[in-house]
Amino acid sequence: MADDISVLVNNIIEENCKRYSVNSPAKGFCYGANFELVNDAVSACKDAFNALDSQPLKVRQLIIDELRVQLDVYIPKLSEDAHYETQMGNIPNKIQKNHAALHNTPGTEDLRSTALTGDDGLTLFEHSPYGVIGAIAPSTNPTETIINNTISMVAAGNTIIFSPHPGAKNISMWLISKIEEIVFNVTGIHNVVVCVNTPTFDTTKEMMEHADVRLLAVTGGPGIVNMAMKTGKKVIGAGEGNPPTIVDATADISTAAQDIIDGASFDYNLPCIAEKSCVAVSCVADELLHQFAHHGAWVITNSDEKARLMSTIVMDNGVVNKDMIGRSPATILKAANIEFTGEPRLVVFEVAEEHPLLYIEQLMPVLPMVRTSDFNAALSLAVKIERGCLHTATMHSRDIYNLNTAARALRTSIFVKNAPSYAGIGVGGEGFTTFTIATPTGEGTTSATTFTRSRRCVLNKAFNVR
């Protein structure tokens, strides 16, 4: 079998090198998959799709297998370079995220065909590619999103033009070039994954509106998702989230505190699924604050310090201070002129139900905690805090009824019970990994199947053998 695959790959490379010249200036080719013009990048990507679409399904899986082998050694570099370029998050957690994206994103096994048979024959339902996908990657999870989307989209049979966030363009373009090199060495096809040399708002808009881009996958805030929706194209949009976590009277408080710290501090709260607030019933709130401190959080009780913290992380106009996004707890505390000891993992402080930080996706390791009279009040407030994003929520409880009631009321794409939030994307929890969680457009946790068209093929009066 191994020899058969080797022969197949060699034949594919030889054939494609002949059919799709890597030196054709008419295609606008630029080694490393980076182009000056959007139109040239899309044109080359379309040619690559025509080449990839003519190959067997097993070729897509060969690409994915090779990406997993060859990119694995670059995970430390990807994590370090992303941290230094964006000045956000921390390297150890970025390594975890990149590893999950590379090794826990489904490949072609995600594409499951179904069939119906009866007296009138057979109907087959298959997953087919769209063609060229325009994909937007954020600065918060740049390399993880590119790896995750590449595996899912190529497994589905598509080619991709990425529009990286300008704040993470260097490491994003390096990664895209490396992917291009690996894919070419496996298939002999250039430009399966491309981008432009200088990603800007204008190039992103041009890419979105290009006639040959058949599908848009947007991992970013509501502004960029709304811009994509206005193109009239099919959009898979991953918008903002404001995940609350609920702690009820039956929870294991020590474990809950540790899980919440683990989730809310993960990569300094950059993941959109991370806990952004905590709602605890009054009878356990004091113990929860004690356990937060015990497990490494810095709990602020002084009203003046709370005010200084808020003025540091939120601007006068109510918008989050971008300079504090993804920064360490120590950096934030120092900026707020708050004395502390050790290396706090998370900053926690108690607030009232109407406190503005509860309703902001702050993306920093600062957790406002609010206490309520009982579980029903906690759930009602959590729904209000989540703001209908329908993204992610977590809960800590031993009461199955409460857990089920919360899951139904919150209606989020991801609901995590008794674990850190990142269990919901396959890090320490069962299930596959994704960094494009499409809540505004409803697909939820995306995988290869998400990036396919469902096609129906009917054979009349045949292949019913019952």
UniProtKB/TrEMBL annotation:
What domain of life?
A: Bacteria
Kindly name one Pfam family recorded for this protein.
Answer: Aldedh
Keywords recorded for this protein, A-Z: NAD, Oxidoreductase
Alphabetical list of InterPro entries matching this protein:
Acetald_propionald_DH-rel (IPR012408), Ald_DH/histidinol_DH (IPR016161), Ald_DH_C (IPR016163), Ald_DH_N (IPR016162), Aldehyde_DH_dom (IPR015590)
Aldehyde dehydrogenase domain sequence ranges? 33-421
Please name the GO terms that the record assigns under molecular function. acetaldehyde dehydrogenase (acetylating) activity
Key word rRNA processing present: no
Q: Which PANTHER family match?
A: ALDEHYDE DEHYDROGENASE-RELATED
Name by which UniProt lists this protein: Aldehyde dehydrogenase EutE
Q: Which organism is it from?
A: Vibrio sinensis
